[in-house]
Design a protein that fits this description.
five-stranded antiparallel sheet; 7 domains
Length: 1222
């Protein structure tokens, strides 16, 4: 059972994950990573109530004992931690006056009604209210349940407090509603209702479901891989498998299965959309993974028929088919890469690494997968053509292919396409070279990935450049007719407030209208701050009023009718009622607004007609992104953007860091609609709009350093992924072997030491950069707050109390100072209440409370600090905030001045990130340098070892071996010394061994010669003795006997002669001639002598269409095959009909000839003696035939061996190196 599970481990894992998915996705399931059903939520809330009640009791005890201030000074950090971890906020009231608050993030109403309810909806959150009272002391504790900001953006997000671990699919209702499960406090009082809202967008559950499904598919693919591990697929079965998988994929995509995939961001078309086949990045990722998986199956498990012996027409047809497939795939790869970059709205430029997201890395995955599929196809073609094509022919073919491709592309005049194809064909040529020359595969793969990374870097840079040009054109056109959505929102709020403004109504209801006073009031109260960048013009009319036209005739026109015509002719209504965008020729941004002011009975209603025109080249403090709803974040996808707008030759306004000229004529390019140029390390797109308006959009130029950094990141990422794929693929097809030899161990050790050092130094550098940034921010804010303090002192130092100044005056003063010092300013009184602010929208929209930050209050009021700079937070925006006490001329403390730096916080954070990215980039280059150093040092250190290994492999006992010269005085020198000494000892041993072997060989040879000579001498002696006796006895048939004796003696002498000849040939073979020999011709010639054999037929099982050449001696080759064929025929008994079959098989570097007979075979105990000089299985012969054959074969660099089965036959194999011109 255990072995069965191990065998099907991937299938078991897939089934297990499917079970988890079914559990998570079951109807009514509520899963968010922790227990978060409604009952559990109520239990958690009860635990929080018990916890906060304990703190309330403790605080009440301290307050009653009059040592609350001392306790707060020591435990302020504890209260801050409780707010972050549990969402607790505490308020202390004495005689209904708030004395202390532990956090100012919640806008607390001025009345006490909220303290009388168990659950309350504040301006930016829902919270449970817990109260402790004792006489005049009242302590309120809030348990924050869920934030409820009036709008959402990057920093303001509505959701349950993190301590509840609840996802966004739960909605809250303050009132008891149908479908909501009621939540009670521990006393049983109803608080609010909760329910699952399944209509909300992607939640954590669906993301986990998608992730698990991708893992299931991955494990199923691995299971399919392991199922085929020891099997091969026919082309027919592979086609069936491919069609089945493609059909399943097509059904899933057509019916959008699984359905929850459609809610995942990766499957949303707004991030990437290419075509119907690839409507999203997720679909493209799944499809490319599937087809590369099929290519891998085809590569590893579909054997192709060998082309050895195939006709020329068949080879040409298959060759052209492969070329067409590889080129079409390369074209598709190029086309897909282009759209993958151009049709995405996320970054691929890796030099700005912090702007990459997981979409970018999925895009890199797709690039690599498609490329690896192409390489596998190339390698498959190489494996099929390897036995029949030489490297020289392959090079010629690739050069012709390169020439034809460039010739075709040259007509397009598309440099980018030509260079891209050059990259692809270079990688093709490189990989074929690697495979034919059998270079180290691992290092070759690294070089191939480096080539592809260079191609990807170049292609991404060029495509992004084209994309940026097109986007800049659209951006320039939009800027030419730009609207200001921020101004529209502020103006809409101003209009709503204006309708009920009692100051305005009082001014209108006077007997004599003080128009300038009205304009000044509106300017100060409504059209300062952000709207200060606009010129403001006001016209007041009732139904009967007229306006004087600005023309030579000085005519009057009805007021209402005049403005109606103005709006009808030049206006475009915005999404906000009563506000119109005006088209004009000045190039600025113009708005027109009208608002009806209803007055008391007896007074005619008055219509306010207001026109706002943007001021030329005007710059005020920007509007913080904290106050912008997400759809209003302008150009958020553009980093480091600068632009300028000109009317005629005058600079109207500019944004960004680039220093544009004041005069348009500097840039020329007046005769084209769009013009592109480079200047001051920026790329500029100039757009000549209508009527003399010009827009210039600028981005920093991408330098060679940036491109090098991009290449480094892409190379690292692709290399890591490639190695992971090789680890997975090696278990399936043995793609590459990774050996941890001494050189690699040394390189790895050096690299680890350098990397660890760089990580620590780099981490320290980044940490130091953050510290310096914090210090710089502190110093900057300290200087600014001091400067603001000086200005405030000049205006307000004569006051006895800060409340003596009117709120309007203080607000206008704060706005004025804000625009001068480019920072927001708040002023708090001695009780920590907000007195005035330059950014009232923060408090009017209930983004935070109007109390001073609690920790700042403790430090300034309780601990009497003279200056404070600290980090504060609104929503998820962290920003620096500075405080100083404001002291009057008579040394009386009047207020506290606060500079919250959230307006510039995002810009400073981006600047900090740019510094961090620069540091990371530098250390990435250092890591690359470390790798190069590690490889170089390991190569240098192990060079003597490699020389030693090479020399040891070249040791030849038949000649003098060269010693190693090494001048070092280290361990390597000792090793070399021992090697050289070993050579000397070996030389002596070889000489002694050679002498011993010669003597032994001569003794053996003498014994054999004696044996062979004695065999004929014995019958010769007997014949002579018999002849002598017959002579002595005067036998009558002596003449006949003498004749027989003579014939017998001649036969024995011939036998002695043949024995002497054989030994002479074996001992003193003539010097062989090395020449180009046609192997097939030699085989035919050697077998001609045996065609007349009646009991054995010679058969040929090889193609003679193309000659096969080896480097050998013609005569010796004839002798080899004569011996082999003769032995094969003699091994077949004459009483049975047998066959001798000759086969030829060829590889890239060698050819093997097989001579097979159907004889009796060789007994196993005789096999070791077959090539011994004196061994024979026949009744006659010297036993030198196979020994001579072996000597000839090995002399020409070949080998000979045999395979035999007793009673079935024997096959002798002879291999020779293929002849090469090199």
């Amino acid at each position: 059972m255990k072995g069965l599970v191990r065998k099907h481990i991937y299938l078991v894992l897939a089934v297990f994950l499917v079970a988890i998915m079914l559990f998570i996705g079951r109807p009514g399931a509520s899963w968010y990573g922790k227990k978060t059903d409604l009952a559990e939520f109520e239990h958690q809330l009860s635990d929080k109530e018990w916890l906060i009640d304990g703190y309330l009791d403790s605080i009440m005890q301290k307050a009653r004992n009059r040592n609350f201030t001392e306790w707060i000074s020591k435990n302020g950090q504890l209260l801050d931690d409780l707010n972050k971890q549990q969402g607790f906020v505490f308020y202390l009231f004495i005689a209904d006056q708030m004395i202390y608050w532990s956090n100012n993030s919640i806008p607390i109403p001025g009345d006490s009604l909220w303290r009388q309810q168990p659950f309350y909806k504040f301006g930016n959150c829902y919270a449970e209210v817990r109260i402790r009272e004792s006489e005049t002391i009242q302590i309120a504790g809030l348990i924050q349940i869920k934030t409820n900001y009036p709008f959402e953006n990057e920093f303001l997000k509505n959701g349950f407090h993190p301590s509840f671990h609840i996802g966004s699919s739960l909605s809250l209702s303050k009132d008891e509603s149908i479908g909501y499960q009621p939540i009670f406090n521990k006393e049983g009082t109803y608080l609010f209702g909760l329910r699952n809202n399944m209509n909300l967008k992607t939640n954590q559950k669906e993301i986990w479901m998608g992730f698990l499904l991708i893992l299931v598919l991955f494990f199923l693919l691995l299971y399919g891989r392991d199922s085929l591990k020891h099997k091969d697929l026919s082309i027919r079965n592979f086609v069936i498998l491919s069609l089945a998988l493609v059909f399943i994929r097509a059904l899933a995509q057509y019916y959008h299965l699984p359905l929850f995939f459609n809610t995942l961001p990766i499957f949303q078309p707004q991030y990437f959309a290419f075509s119907y086949l690839f409507p999203s990045l997720g679909d493209l990722f799944i499809s490319t993974t599937l087809w590369v998986y099929l290519i891998f199956i085809f590569y590893a498990k579909v054997p192709l028929k060998s082309l050895i012996g195939a006709g020329i027409s068949k080879k040409v047809t298959i060759g052209f088919a492969w070329i067409a497939v590889i080129l079409l795939y390369a074209h598709f790869e190029h086309y897909l890469f282009k759209h993958l970059i151009f049709d995405s709205n996320f970054e691929y430029e890796a030099y700005d690494v912090l702007n990459l997201n997981y979409f970018s890395f999925i895009g890199y995955f797709i690039l690599l997968f498609v490329f690896l599929g192409w390489i596998l196809l190339i390698d498959k073609a190489y494996l099929q053509f390897k036995p029949v094509l030489t490297l020289k022919r392959i090079r010629l073919l690739l050069l012709v292919l390169l020439f034809v491709t460039l010739l075709i592309l040259w007509g397009t005049r598309n440099t980018r396409q030509i260079i891209s194809w050059l990259f692809l064909l270079t990688m093709l040529f490189f990989w074929v070279q690697v495979r034919y020359k059998q270079l180290p595969l691992l290092s070759s793969i690294i070089l191939l990935i480096a080539l592809f990374s260079a191609y990807a870097t170049y292609f991404i840079r060029k495509q992004n450049f084209s994309k940026r040009i097109e986007e800049s054109k659209v951006l320039a056109v939009n800027l030419a007719r730009e609207q200001d959505p921020v101004a529209e929102i502020i103006l809409s709020e101003a209009i709503n407030e204006l309708k009920t403004d009692t100051v305005v109504k009082n001014l209108l209801q006077k007997d004599w209208l003080e128009f300038q006073k009205m304009v000044d009031y509106l300017q100060r109260h409504y059209f300062s701050g952000y709207l200060g960048r606009y010129n403001f013009q006001l016209t007041l009319c009732n139904k009967t009023d007229s306006v004087l036209l600005n023309d030579p005739n000085q005519e009057w026109a009805p007021c209402f009718q005049f403005f109606k015509k103005l709006v009808d002719k030049n206006g475009t209504e915005t999404n906000l009622p009563g506000i119109y965008y005006l088209r004009n020729v000045s190039g600025g941004i113009n708005y027109f607004a009208k608002v009806k002011i209803s007055l008391k009975s007896g007074w005619d209603d008055v219509m306010f007609f207001m026109e706002l025109t943007s001021k030329p080249n005007y710059e005020v403090l920007g509007y913080p992104e904290l106050l912008l709803e997400k759809p209003l974040l302008l150009y958020e996808n553009y980093h480091n953007l600068s632009y300028a707008k000109y009317t005629g030759n005058q600079l109207l306004n500019r944004t960004g860091s680039f220093p544009y000229a004041f005069d348009r004529s500097v840039y020329q390019f007046r005769n084209t609609e769009f013009a592109f140029f480079e200047s001051e390390n920026h790329d500029h797109l100039l757009y000549n709009a209508d009527q003399g308006n010009t827009v210039i959009v600028s981005f920093p130029t991408v330098t060679f350093y940036n491109i090098l950094i991009s290449f480094t990141y892409i190379f690292f990422f692709l290399l890591i992924i490639t190695f992971l794929l090789l680890i997975v693929g090696n278990r399936f097809a043995n793609l590459v072997s990774i050996q941890l030899n001494i050189k690699n161990k040394i390189a790895l050790s050096i690299l680890l030491v350098l990397l660890i050092s760089l990580v620590f130094v780099g981490g320290g550098t980044v940490f130091y950069t953050f510290r310096q940034f914090d210090r710089g921010q502190n110093e900057l804010l300290s200087e600014k707050v001091q400067s603001v303090l000086v200005e405030v002192e000049t205006k307000l130092s004569d006051l006895e109390s800060i409340h003596q100044a009117s709120p309007d005056y203080l607000n206008n003063l704060m706005v004025k100072f804000s625009n001068v010092f480019f920072t927001d300013i708040n002023m708090y009184d001695l009780n920590g209440n907000l007195v005035s602010t330059s950014r009232k929208e923060i408090f009017e929209r209930n983004l935070t409370g109007s109390k001073m930050n609690a920790s700042a209050y403790r430090e300034l009021v309780l601990n009497k600090k003279a200056r404070l700079v600290q980090k504060e937070q609104i929503g998820e925006l962290d920003y620096y905030s500075a405080y100083v006490p404001f002291i009057s001329a008579d040394r009386k403390l009047l207020a506290y001045i606060n500079l919250p730096y959230f307006t510039k916080e995002v810009a400073f954070r981006q600047e900090l990130m740019r510094v961090v990215v620069a540091v990371i980039n530098i250390y990435t280059l250092l890591i690359i340098l470390s790798i190069v150093i590690a490889v170089y040092l390991s190569s240098r250190i192990t060079q003597p070892l490699r020389i030693l290994r090479q020399r040891m492999s070249m040791i030849d006992l038949s000649k003098e071996n060269e010693k190693i010269s090494y001048e070092g005085k280290d361990e390597m020198a000792e090793l070399v010394y021992e090697y050289n000494r070993m050579l000397e000892e070996l030389s002596k041993s070889v000489q002694m061994l050679a002498k011993s072997e010669r003597e032994s060989a001569w003794r053996e040879m003498a014994r054999q010669i004696a044996h062979e000579i004695k065999n004929p001498l014995t019958p010769m002696k007997l014949s002579i003795q018999l002849l002598e006796r017959a002579w002595q006895n005067k036998e009558a048939d002596f003449d006949e006997r003498f004749k027989r004796f003579s014939n017998n003696l001649i036969e024995q002498i011939d036998s002695l002669s043949s024995i002497a000849t054989a030994f002479s040939q074996f001992a003193q073979m003539p010097k062989a001639r090395s020449e180009k020999v046609n192997l097939i011709e030699r085989i035919y010639q050697s077998t001609e002598l045996f065609k007349e054999c009646t009991y054995a037929q010679v058969k040929y099982e090889f193609s003679d269409e193309f000659p096969i050449y080896v480097k050998a001696d013609n005569e010796r080759m004839l002798q080899v095959f004569n011996n082999l064929v003769k032995n094969a025929i003699q091994a077949i008994p004459k009483e049975q009909q047998g066959e001798v079959t000759i086969r030829i098989s060829q590889t890239e570097s060698s050819v093997v000839v097989e001579v097979h007979d159907t004889g009796t075979g060789i007994a196993p105990e005789l096999e070791p003696k077959m090539f011994q000089p004196n061994f024979t299985t026949k009744s006659s012969g010297t036993g030198l035939g196979l020994a001579i054959v072996k000597s000839i074969v090995e002399e020409f660099g070949g080998a000979i061996w045999f395979e035999s089965k007793a009673g079935e036959g024997t096959s002798f194999f002879v291999s020779f190196p293929v002849y090469s011109n090199n």
